[in-house]
Amino acid sequence: ASPLSIVALDFDNSSAAFTQEFLFDGKMTTITWRGGAFFLHERLATTNRFETLGTLRAFGVGFIPDPNFFAFGPFRLNQRYKQNVQSAAAFVETDYQASAKLTLTAGVRLTHETGKFATQTLFDEVIANPVLSPLRGAKVSTDAISWRLAALYAFAPSQSAYASISRGFKSGGFNGGALFASDVVGPLAPEFVITYEAGIKW
Q1: Which residues does 53 contact at the CB level (< 8 Å), separation at least 6?
Q2: Looking at residue 55, what DSSP letter applies?
Q3: pTM
Q4: What are phi and psi of 46, to 5 degrees?
Q5: In this predicted model, what pLDDT tens digit does every residue of 124-162 receive, in sequence order?
């Protein structure tokens, strides 16, 4: 909220993705099932430019590199990174009509994901000076099993109670916004969660 040019940001992102899912379903006397396969390929290329303290240039203050820090005075940073992600999964879920009022559900999903990452940050001044050592060929791989168990009991056509327990995950990846120390880029480990839910529909 200042008229001064303290930090100016320019984000140039290019992304492309392809995804495909196949679904199958069927029904027997007391069992209804759904299954399928999923595939994703995603590519991201980013160039982020940072102009810091640009107002000082009008007063003759220029870029002053400092080995103990990284710079004094105004400076421009140019950050580039690329990331490719592939994900493939197979899944199936079944509903078993245990009685006229009770339905039991079980499902499982197998997922394999890989990510590749490369990045570098430069001082974009008279001479491009590296700030972050180039990081190329960094990889992360995630194999995960997700599942769900649930039960629904219908007291009447518009009244029921349900309960479920399920396991999910968030993929591993990279901290693409890291500008300086390469050890904060990653890879980041995947995160897993088990959730419980119960309620009444009326």
Answers
A1: 5, 6, 7, 61, 73, 74, 75
A2: G
A3: 0.77
A4: -130, 140
A5: 776 556 665 667 778 889 999 999 999 999 999 899 999
